[in-house]
Each structure stands twice: as structure tokens, then as C-alpha cells.
Amino acid sequence: MRSSTGPAPGGERPADTRFFSRRGPFPLTRIAEVAGAPLPEGLAPAKRACELRGVAPLQTATAQEVSFLDNRRYLPLLARTQAGAVILGPAFADQVPPHCTPLVCRSPYLAWSRVARLFHPGPSSRPGIHPTAVIGADVELGEGVEIGPLVVIGEGARIGAGSIIASHAAIGPHVVMGSYCRIGSHVSLSHALLGARVVLYPGARVGQDGFGFAQGPEGFESVPQLGRVLLEDDVEVGANSTIDRGSMRDTVIGAGTRIDNLVQIGHNTRLGRCCVVVSQAGIAGSTELEDFVTVAAQAGLIGHIHIGEKARIGAQCGVMSDIEAGADVIGSPAMPFREFFRNVATLRRLSRPKGEKGG
Amino acid sequence: MRSSTGPAPGGERPADTRFFSRRGPFPLTRIAEVAGAPLPEGLAPAKRACELRGVAPLQTATAQEVSFLDNRRYLPLLARTQAGAVILGPAFADQVPPHCTPLVCRSPYLAWSRVARLFHPGPSSRPGIHPTAVIGADVELGEGVEIGPLVVIGEGARIGAGSIIASHAAIGPHVVMGSYCRIGSHVSLSHALLGARVVLYPGARVGQDGFGFAQGPEGFESVPQLGRVLLEDDVEVGANSTIDRGSMRDTVIGAGTRIDNLVQIGHNTRLGRCCVVVSQAGIAGSTELEDFVTVAAQAGLIGHIHIGEKARIGAQCGVMSDIEAGADVIGSPAMPFREFFRNVATLRRLSRPKGEKGG
Amino acid sequence: MRSSTGPAPGGERPADTRFFSRRGPFPLTRIAEVAGAPLPEGLAPAKRACELRGVAPLQTATAQEVSFLDNRRYLPLLARTQAGAVILGPAFADQVPPHCTPLVCRSPYLAWSRVARLFHPGPSSRPGIHPTAVIGADVELGEGVEIGPLVVIGEGARIGAGSIIASHAAIGPHVVMGSYCRIGSHVSLSHALLGARVVLYPGARVGQDGFGFAQGPEGFESVPQLGRVLLEDDVEVGANSTIDRGSMRDTVIGAGTRIDNLVQIGHNTRLGRCCVVVSQAGIAGSTELEDFVTVAAQAGLIGHIHIGEKARIGAQCGVMSDIEAGADVIGSPAMPFREFFRNVATLRRLSRPKGEKGG
């Protein structure tokens, strides 16, 4: 899961000013406060007074920048860093070189995220409706809404305050959207109710008909798909992902859930709060996930099953039946992690050509 | 396969009138006729005369609504339903509570589909060309065609009568489309000939170059992709699916075939009639599927192979060679279902730690 | 891999003139020169003087057309072909019928590609800006650029000479694009620098935020994604594929690399030169591929690993750790090809029911 580790280091400078605005500088004391890290006792006054201008990886950070370490793999870079300060966990604190101020946190990645956002708070809306947008009758736009060029909004839709709709998005009739949503370019959104701060990345498809049809005497006959899609507060849906609307009930994505790119969510599916679905995973119709479930990349879940709270489904896993809360499964068909790797070892042993040594 | 089962039950009411128009009410006799279900003998005249106003799942249906049961899993809901009538198979008929009229059918899901469509017949075209659409020279539009906002239609394209082209779709030059097609928002369609009643869901990509290139002395060199895409009558292509045009021959999707979301169809591929390809499956170039083949979710078929009629390819299956007609395969590499699950059991037995009991 | 084999034969004629322009005719001598194939010694003067009008598959080619054979599977068609000339490898040369001129090459698919391109050189730009395009301030357009209808180009973007931007594409502010790029319809492109001759197919998403967030006390918190996407010269990205921009460093795709449809490339990922990533494969964040790596369809690579030069990763492979240069792996978890198929055989043998003969 990419969310569990920080960025890998690279040579170039981040935050190209052509693409990213930057605030600051900020004093080290402010950085430490945002990071939730106490400044080291006995820190020299000159250091304490220093101002920092931005964030950068260990190998390119300057004395005016704050950096970050979360992954043991990149520890060799710490010794050589020129960074003015570094956010990291207690385990690595004693390896920070003397010219660099350690900002030690229990959740360094979270602290890093907040410090980076301090410098780069992200886009805010530039209120207004682009003259090329096509706005239907009786559309309600909240205060400060930004509607980009060539957007289409169907009649009766309601867009919450501060929301940003990027170019070429298509918002269907009567869609309801809470405040501070961000709808990416080329999104198709219909038959849906969105909470606040929902983010749809470019090309996401939300609300189209589910894959439902019956075998008739002369071919398949489509079954009307009469449900909606509900995206609760703070849901994010990745680029080119697809979420079908329900057939007789709604497809529901719980508050805070994060869906990566190219994910498929079938009709009537329910995801709980703060689930994570990594790229190219698929969840078939009417399956239910409780809160805090993780589905890793390219995993597939068949329809009509139930996944318990905090279950973790591994990459490429094929889930064909219910999974208990807290379980950690992988393989196709899904099995506990330990069993999967035991199977791998057994099979390797059994098929080793005679005379070859074990590895 | 999601098409084989009906909707799972849910608490909320379907067919939010903001999103779905509704016809009716209809008398029970009409419902029974559409369902192809005989009314029970000796049905009380008051019941026979009753009018129904819509469809709903078992747990929320009222006495004025018709409901549905197809999956044994949801049988407990039947006993408690308040529905006025319920469509179901003969096996469950004797469990219908007395206040509810059973409509017993051999194909309950099909019957349900038709009854639901009676109440909710779906969108019909609102003829006309939106003033923001960009229509090329010599485009032919059939009677009653609806062209949405910001659609682009290339020169010489022909759009059949009653077709609906949603916002932001791009129809390439000289594309031919039969009558009553529905093209979703943000579809890209080029180098293609479509039959009647073809449905492309939002973001489908049809007709772009296939992935063909040769290794040259200084890198890859693209091979011209000179074929087309033919989508026969009643083909449906899901959201964000991709169908490449052929290189030297056409890519052909047979009549009535249903393709779900995020599916990849490589160049020169041939699918027969009434195939089903579930989401995130991929079919590589030049592979041929006979009629009525099912490819489940996330399955992958390599190129240049042949899949016999009515073969069923399981979820996540990896097909590396021809499959016989009627075969039922799963696993990677693909093998018969029985063999796959025998393998799973064998491996579990062999790698069980000593002293642990069999499960 | 579809690139390694030529087109499968089919009945219909390629290069429908509604969709493809054609140049020619060209004399056989010119064809042979482009193919890099010597004309057979002692070729009759009448044959040598003949003119060819196009390319076609073996079974439909006429005496005025040149055809191609690369795959032993289609050898029976060679005996019956009516083609005037055929491009093929030395192994098949003695099976060419007498009325057909063999054009024998060491790299027949490459030769074929060049000959096909001679007749069908592909689209060239029709310089100009469609009046419905929305062009931001300070955009720089090179000579001969074609901007299609309803394109949006953000402020400060630079589009290289001869580039073609198809309808509905969205080019973000300050994007830089080299010369002769082709951007397909509905592409979203932001935070990116492109070399020359980069091709993005319809619906590709390049430059959106990576999937990065930290667990906070009240849910996930997004980590600012401050890197860019660099697409070097001659990179191609398939339809509906997604390439996230980096978090602290850039996502980089090396020169000449080809990415198929529906592929996911995570943030900070590095691909070397002339890699091939086939459809529906996924590469998680911060993983690095050296040059000439092949990733087959539906394979998945976890994050933070390293793949050596010329490694070949099989279809549906699940790669959880570094792969050495030149390795050939398949399976999930990934293992050498030979080991994978030995495992398959072992398991089949061990789970064969008693009394059943080996197959």
C-alpha cells in the first residue's frame, strides 16, 4: 500500500514553481508545532530562530528546507543530508547529523503531510462560471463555486459552496454535491448524492448503469438500474475509476474512504468508513465492506459477500466468500497470509528437481 | 457474474423521482402478463383488482408495490415483506406470506426486469442538436436524434434514427451508427461501424490504434493499424472500457454481447454473439471467442487463441491456450474448475503443519 | 505480448478508405528497398516492374498487394495466397507460391511495419486552432500545431511544433510538450513535461495526484503531491491509462517506452528506455524499471522495488521483490518461468485422483 510509506528519494527538486504555489518561509518553531514534534532540548538559539522555505527529499534538501525519513531503506541518505530539519520516528532519531534538527514524531508520515501542506496548501477555488460552461435550468451554486471551461451541469443540480468543477466535467441532472468538493476534468457524474469535500479525479465515472441483465429468448435484456450512488464526506475516487449506481438499492461509499485509479465498484456495493481500495482492484455487485477495510491493488471480490471490519485483502487476491473482521488474506482463492506463503514454500520444496539443494 | 442474480436487498427506496421517471400505476393483471406469470387460481377479487405503483425490494416494498426474490440468501426477507406481489421461482412459491400475491415464473429475473422496465422505461431521445455541439460537414443525422452539449461529430459520420449522443462525446469522421444507439458522455469513438441499439457507457474508448509495434534499430516503430471496429446490434460496452481497432482485419464484437467496465479488448479480436465480459477482464489481440462465452472479472486471455462456444472462464483466470466449447475453467494457467479446487485442497493438505487437524 | 507477432489473418479488406488515406502505387523495387529485402535473383522483368497498390492479409491480398507472414500458425494461408509479394523470414521463404515474390527479411514484422507506413503514413497536422478551443494566457504554440474543437489549454503551456491536440483534451497550466506530439481526445494532462513525438491515446490521465495519504486522528489526510510527470521522447501511453505525478520526486517514463491501455503507473515510479507495459498492468509507487523491461498484461508490481534491465515479467505476475536483469518471471508471487510450470505440473500430479493416468 503506497500510503504506508513516504516518498522514495530522487535527485530533482520537488514543487516546481510553475506547477505548485508555495507559502512561507516559516520559522522552525512553527514547523515543529505543525509536525507535533517538540524541539530538541538545548537547541542552539541560532537554530531555533532559523526560517525554513520548503520541503525536499533528504538528498536535495538545503539548510533552509525540512525533510523526512520513514523507511529504513533510505537511512543511508540521512547521514549525508544537508537538510535544516528532518521529520522522523524515534527509532532513527540518533542518526540525524549534527547540523540538522531532528523533529521526532510518533506518526512521521502524518507530520510530514501536514508540514508539506503548510508550504503547499493546494488549489483554492477561483469563484466564477467560465463563459463556455453549459448550466442547466434551476441549478443551485453555492458561494465561491468555480465552474471551469466546457463543464456541463444538468438541470436542478446543486453544487455546494467552495466546490471546484474542472474543465469538461459532466454533472447530471439533480446531482447534489456538498461543500468544498473537487471534481476533476472529464468526470462523468450522475444519479448521485455527494457529501462534503468529496474528490473525484479526472475521468472517474460515477452513477452509470450497473451491469445487470437477464437472459431473454432473443438475447440479454437490461434490468433497469434504479438506485443511486452515495459518496459520503471526504470520499476520494481515483482517475478513470468506475462506480456503478445501484439497481434496487444505492451504491454507498462510506465517509473518508479512498479509492485509487482504475478501480471498479459494482452496483449495490457498500463500503464502510475509511476503507482503502488500491488501483485496479474490483468489487462486484452487492458486496459489503465494513469500516477500515483495505483492498490492495488488483484484488477482486465477487458479489454478494461480506468483509469484516479492518480486514486486509492482499494484492491480486481473489475473494470468493465472506472474510472475517481483522483477517489478513491473500491468494486466489483468498487464504490467510501465513497459509499462502506456507503453500508457496511447500510447492517449491515438492517440485524441486532431485539433487538440488533447498534454498 | 452479477447478471445471474438479482439485486441484494437494502433499506432505502429505489427509483428516486429526481433521477428516474415512473409510469403507472398498472393493474396486477397487467403486471402478471408482463411477467409471464399466471395469477394464482382463486385469487380474491379485491387482490386481482389492485393497482401497483412501482417496484421495490422485499424489505421496503409496500402493498402497492411488486417485489422480487431470486437468491436463496434473501429468503428470510420474504416472510416479512409487505409487498403487494412478488416475482419468484417455483421453489420459493409456498413461502410467500398470505397478503402478498405470488407471481411464479420460470425466469424470475427476466420477469422482474420486464416489470421494472414497465414502470421505468428509461430515457428516450429529446430530438435536437445542442447549440454548443460541433458537427462536421456532410454528417447525416437520422430522425429524432439527440445531440448533447459539447459533442463533436466528425465529417461524414452517420447517426441512426433515435440515437442519443451525450455531452462531450467525440464521434470520429465517417463513423456509422445504426438506430437507437446510446453514446455516453466522454466517449471516444472512431474508425467504427455500429449496428442498432448499441450502448457505449461514459468514457468508453472504441477505435483507437492497437498496441502494435516492431523493434527497430533505434527503438520501437509503430505498425499502422488499418482495421476498424465493428460493434453489431445490441452490443453494450461499459464505462472506461477500451476496444482497439484492428491492424489488418477488423475487431468485431458480435450481436448482443455485453462488456462491463474497464475491460480491454485488443486489436483483431473477435467476440461472437451474446458473450459476457465482466469488469477488468482483458482479451489480447487476435483471440477469437465463439458465441455465448462468459469471461468473468479480471480474467486475462492471451492473444491468438480460440475459445469455444459457451465456454465459461472464471474470475482472474489466465488463459494461455485454446479452450473447448462448453468448458468451465479457472486458475492461472486455466484449468477445469474441479481440478482447480482439487489442487487447492491438495496443497492445503500437504502444507498443513504437523499435528494440525484437517479442516 | 501482442507486439511480437503480426496481425492474424481475417476475411475483410483492410484500410477502409473512409478511415484511412492511401498513397501509392509504388514499384516492387521501392517496396523491397523499404523492407530492406533484396529482390530474388533472376526475378522475371515483368514481376520486377510491377506496381503495388497496398497491403493486405494473405487470404485477401491481390496480385497488386503485398502481404506478410510472421507466425507459423498462419503458414497454410501462404500456399493459397494471391498476393503479388509477401514479406517473411528466411524459414518460410521456400514455401512462397511461384506467382508471389518473396521479400525475405531478418525482421519481417519491422519490414512489414515500414511498408505499411509507406502506403498509410498516418495523420499529419492540419494547422490551426478550432474556434471552440479555450486557450489560456501566454500559451506558446509551435509552428503547424493543430488544436481541435473544445480543447482547453491552461495558461503558460507550451506546445511543440507539429503537435496535434484532439477534441476535448485538457492541457493543464504550464505543461511543456515537445514537437510532433499527438494528444488524443479526452486526455487530461497536467504537471507534466513531455519530450518530442509523445503520443497519448484517448482518455489517458497524466499528472493527477498520486495516492498518498496519512492516517490522522479523524481519518486520512492527503499528502501534497509535489512532483511532476516526465514523459521522454517517443513515449506512448494507451487509452484510459493513468500516470500519477510524483510526490517529492518526479514520475519518469523513459524514452521510447510503450504503455498499453488501462495501465496504472503510481507516483515516483521510474521506467527506463524502451520498456513495454501491456494492458491492465500496474506498477505501484516508487518502483524502478531499468531499460528494456517488459511487463505483460495484468501483471502487478508492488512499490519501492527494482527491476533489472531486460527483465520479462509475465502476464498476471505478482512481483513483490526486486527482479534481476534478464530474468524471466511469472506467477504470484513471481518466480522463474521454469519453476512456475514445474510447480503447475507437480501440483497436477499430486492431486490427480488415484487410478487416473498421467496426462
TrEMBL record, chains A, B, C:
Key words, A-Z: Acyltransferase, Lipid A biosynthesis, Lipid biosynthesis, Lipid metabolism, Repeat, Transferase
EC assignment: 2.3.1.191
Ribosomal protein recorded as keyword: no
Region (Disordered): 1-22
Gene3D superfamilies: Hexapeptide repeat proteins (2.160.10.10), MurE/MurF, N-terminal domain (3.40.1390.10)
Biological pathway: Bacterial outer membrane biogenesis; LPS lipid A biosynthesis
Domain UDP-3-O-[3-hydroxymyristoyl] glucosamine N-acyltransferase non-repeat region: 50-118
Enzyme class, first EC level, given as a word: transferase
Assembly and oligomerization: Homotrimer.
Protein name: UDP-3-O-acylglucosamine N-acyltransferase
Keyword Magnesium among record annotations: no
Record field: catalytic activity: a UDP-3-O-[(3R)-3-hydroxyacyl]-alpha-D-glucosamine + a (3R)-hydroxyacyl-[ACP] = a UDP-2-N,3-O-bis[(3R)-3-hydroxyacyl]-alpha-D-glucosamine + holo-[ACP] + H(+)
PANTHER family the UniProt entry points to: UDP-3-O-ACYLGLUCOSAMINE N-ACYLTRANSFERASE, UDP-3-O-ACYLGLUCOSAMINE N-ACYLTRANSFERASE 1, MITOCHONDRIAL-RELATED
Cellular component GO terms, alphabetical: membrane
Family: Belongs to the transferase hexapeptide repeat family. LpxD subfamily.
Residues annotated as catalytic: 267 (proton acceptor)
GO biological process: lipid A biosynthetic process
InterPro entries xrefs: Hexapep_transf_CS, LpxD, Trimer_LpxA-like_sf, UDP_GlcNAc_AcTrfase_non-rep
Function of the molecule: Catalyzes the N-acylation of UDP-3-O-acylglucosamine using 3-hydroxyacyl-ACP as the acyl donor. Is involved in the biosynthesis of lipid A, a phosphorylated glycolipid that anchors the lipopolysaccharide to the outer membrane of the cell.
CDD domains: LbH_LpxD
Molecular function via GO: N-acyltransferase activity; UDP-3-O-[(3R)-3-hydroxyacyl]-glucosamine N-acyltransferase activity
